[in-house]
Amino acid sequence: MTAQLETIAQAMVAEGKGILAADESTGTIEKRFDTIGAQCTEENRRDYREMLFRAHDAMSNCVSGVILYDETLRQKARDGTPISKVISDTGALPGIKVDTGAKDLAHCPGEKITEGLDGLRERFAEYYGLGARFAKWRAVITIGTDIPSGTCIQANAHALARYAALAQEANIVPIVEPEVLMDGPHDIARCLEVTEAALNALYAELGAQRVLLEGTILKPNMVLSGTACGTQAGVEEVAEQTVKCFQRCIPEAVPGICFLSGGQSDEAATAHLSAMNAMFDTPWKLSFSYGRALQAAALKAWGGKPENEAAAQAAFSHRAKMNSLATSGKWNTDVEKAA
Ligand code: 13P
Questions:
Q1: Catalytic site residue 179?
Q2: Catalytic choice (177, 205, 240, 309)
Q3: Nearest protein Cα to ligand 1, atom 9
Q4: Whole-angstrom Cα distance, residue 10 to residue 131?
Q5: Phi, psi of 94 (to 5 degrees)
Q6: Can you give the CATH number for the domain in which 36 is found?
Q7: Would you give per-residue pLDDT tens digits along the chain (339 residues)?
Q8: From the CA of 266, how far away is ligand 1's center (Å)?
């Protein structure tokens, strides 16, 4: 069991590869579809995602795994092939989002706790049977006046660790995602402070729950200036502060760190990742697990129309290739433009 978890975790951060987060809940994908005027039907959700998973170049060269929503893991492609097989045929691993969302945390105004632990052992067994080899659980931490509280950081770290232990028991690699949101006027120093507190609490809880770190992947935010902060830190400062934070908090046994994009522009998410890999030699692989920053251009090119599939696949492949280059620090604006 231990060996399988380690092998899968290593495969998730194989050279030049990262993760495609395509696990938007129905409500979230509806918001994305609204931006292109597409109807949020089950068929359209399937067609859009099938289009991405059949982008062969991107999938076989740049994507190690895909995080799916429950509905997608159970769907069949237009030709009747299970979607999970469409993915595994490209060499990528199917994964599953298992949390049931962030809800208001009692006694903590403005803060969230992620739910989904009840019945999770049974759900993991079923997901394994459906082909999932890794999973994701996202905690949400908000920066604001007097928040986050220690209560919120602690409760979310505990839930992440309970989830991670259950995942490993089912032979599934847990992606642990403590997302510190980028919204707000806070500066980069405040983001560093909060991210550090969240990661310290997380690794303490993972230890307490006996989670095998070699069989986990961390999905963190980058250390950034708040979106409404008057002074925006540049690319090199973001790279420095993020890696400094990780050096303080993340054990070397963790095989890989796959960032969320969190609302950064496509190019900013790529530039930051590339700068980290160009500037630092780290004990963990630094890669991507982007949702919006991998899909935005493809979604726009698709526009809900079957005749645009090839153009949308080209847009996805381009973004995937740029992020693949970023995993070895080789992205720059020239390669972005040349392609
Ligand atoms: P974004 O990259 O769009 O933040 O999504 C990643 C994700 O899976 C959030 O849980």
A1: no
A2: 177
A3: 260
A4: 18
A5: -80, 140
A6: 3.20.20.70
A7: 799 999 999 999 999 999 999 999 999 999 999 999 999 999 999 999 999 999 999 999 999 999 999 999 999 999 999 999 999 999 999 999 999 999 999 999 999 999 999 999 999 999 999 999 999 999 999 999 999 999 999 999 999 999 999 999 999 999 999 999 999 999 999 999 999 999 999 999 999 999 999 999 999 999 999 999 999 999 999 999 999 999 999 999 999 999 999 999 999 999 999 999 999 999 999 999 999 999 999 999 999 999 999 999 999 999 999 999 999 999 999 999 987
A8: 12
Report how far ligand 1's centroid is from the alpha carbon of 268 (Å).
15
Give the dihedral sign, CA 231/188/234/295: negative
Question: Which string of DSSP letters, residue by residue, matches 133-177?
Answer: -EEEEEEEE--BTTBS-HHHHHHHHHHHHHHHHHHHHTT-EEEEE
pTM of structure: 0.98
- d(CA 75, CA 82) in angstroms, rounded, equals 6
CB of 291 sitting under 6 A from ligand 1: yes
Domain range for residue 68? 2-338
Point out the ligand 1 atom lying closest to the alpha carbon of residue 23: 8
Shortest-distance Cα residue to atom 1 of ligand 1: 291
- Sign of the alpha-carbon dihedral angle for 30, 95, 260, 279: negative
The finding on whether 138 has its CB within 6 A of some atom of ligand 1 is yes
| Alpha carbon nearest to ligand 1 atom 5, residue | 291
Nearest residue CA, atom 8 of ligand 1? 21
337 is catalytic: no
pLDDT of residue 1: 73
pLDDT of residue 339: 76
Q: In this structure, are residues 283 and 312 in contact, taking their beta carbons and an 8 Å threshold?
A: no
What is the distance in A from the centroid of ligand 1 to the CA of 150? 24
Question: CA nearest 298: which of 33, 102, 12, 7?
Answer: 33
Number of domains in the chain: 1
Active-site position among 97, 112, 219, 321: 219
